[in-house]
Amino acid sequence: MATSMVIGTQWGDEGKGKIVDYLAEQADVVVRSQGGNNAGHTVVVDDKAFALRLLPSGILYDNKTNVIGTGVVIDPKVFLEELSNLEKQGKSAKGLQISNRAHVIMPYHIRLDEAEEASKGAMKIGTTKNGIGPCYADKVNRVGIRVCDLYDEDLFVTKLKYNVTIKNKMFTNVYGVEPVDFDTILRDYKNYAAQIKKFVADTNSTVINAIKDGKKVLFEGAQATMLDLDHGTYPFVTSSHPVAGGASVGSGVGPHYLNNIVGVVKAYATRVGEGPFPSEQLNEVGEALREIGHEFGTVTGRSRRTGWLDLAVVSYAAGLSSLDYLAITRLDILDTFKEIKICVGYTLDGKPVTGFPADLKELERCEPIYETMEGWQTDISGIREYDALPEAARRYVERIAEVTGVAIGIVSVGPNRNQTIVVQDVFK
Ligand code: GDP
Ligand code: IMO
Ligand code: MG
């Protein structure tokens, strides 16, 4: 049995897509378990960039099974657009499967996401406005529409009528926005259903059987620990569970099958949207990180907030996801810095903080404890062996392992597949 999982340890955009693409070469099956097209995973192959949102990052190989699992929320329109773009770029979706149990994002979810954000004022989350939260809310409220429901005309019409009636009352009476049209949605979604039918499968069985048959299965996380609905900086989170346990539920695979859990750590920190960010640098350091790192969102184009690496966050992620290894990404972005700070914990009212604060006001008052490390001031993007990294870069990486107590598996020094330094095998 060989499984591996790639998890975001910070606020997303750590480079999960690149690490999944790299590891996918060895995999038979690549599985997305949660989130939806709020994700934006950029994968670079031979200097050509592919922006993936719903499709697993194993899709760029021809011979893999790629699974969009049960815990994912699927916008079929976005899915079909993504597929068509991929095909235009010369890739095929052969071997792709969509869970028959996954929930479907409907136009009223997107409208609700926009209306709720607009009405929240200071409580605004800064969502990607893709209808993710409202779709998961309907799922939890047991009124959601699943992929398999699309193929039972009576059931689909009944569920759609119910939802459109209730949501339109909310649109007109509460939010003061335009209602949605039942007939248009029914027509469009019948059309989408016909187009995606060939991909629909019982993916829970696909994944379990693959594991039992000794195939190599790779789980691809979207979003990240600090955006987890239960464990992140609630309410400034997404509506799914990006921690390792979420992959178990979202793929329909028991926890004993999950091995080699890899936490992806960007060598500094970024956050898109609202919410606390203790090591944020609202100064020239933050500007430099944004400029050098081109820190602008793949999905929304929004400018990302930037700061120093926060190991209080990564250590929290290490426990929540029982991380076996770390993959440090974007180390090359720090190449020109003379000094690099690293947050190794927080103090609150002069006392060290243990655990990770639940209360956001408390978190906002936390003072990061910084260690200042020497920069390496050399271009490392061409280095392929760990021992060939400058000593200062190795010291930085090793300090991350020391503070978090998690071994280093991979160090990434550029977006391309080959810009990857394997410190130890993370997919055994
Ligand atoms: P994800 O959402 O976690 O998959 O990350 P994103 O794809 O949103 O953002 C990471 C960006 O960094 C992408 O543009 C990647 O191509 C790029 N990237 C990944 N690893 C590295 C690296 O080691 N160095 C550099 N310079 N870029 C990287
Ligand atoms: P990847 O997989 C970074 C953030 C949004 C917002 C919050 C809730 O590329 O790392 P949502 O639309 O999910 O309801 O928005 O979560 N967010 C992400 N930030 N990377 C992501 O995905 C994200 N997916 C959601 O910016 O703050
Ligand atoms: Mg991203």
TrEMBL record:
Active site: D13, H41, K139
Residue ranges of coiled coil: none
Residue positions binding substrate: T298, V299, T300, G301, R302, S303, R304
SUPFAM superfamilies: P-loop containing nucleoside triphosphate hydrolases (SSF52540)
GO biological process, any: 'de novo' AMP biosynthetic process
Cofactor(s), names only, from the UniProt record: Mg(2+)
EC nos: 6.3.4.4
InterPro entries in the record: Adenylosuccin_syn_GTP-bd, Adenylosuccin_syn_Lys_AS, Adenylosuccinate_synth_dom1, Adenylosuccinate_synth_dom2, Adenylosuccinate_synth_dom3, Adenylosuccinate_synthetase, P-loop_NTPase
Binding site for GTP: 12-18, 40-42, 304, 330-332, 412-414
Protein residues bound to IMP: D13, E14, G15, K16, N38, A39, G40, H41, T128, R142, Q223, T238, R302
Residues noted as binding Mg(2+) in the record, renumbered to the chain: D13, G40
UniProt cross-references to HAMAP family, sorted A to Z: Adenylosucc_synth (MF_00011)
Function: Plays an important role in the de novo pathway of purine nucleotide biosynthesis. Catalyzes the first committed step in the biosynthesis of AMP from IMP.
Family note: Belongs to the adenylosuccinate synthetase family.
Oligomer and partners: Homodimer.
Name this polypeptide is given: Adenylosuccinate synthetase
Origin species: Veillonella montpellierensis DNF00314
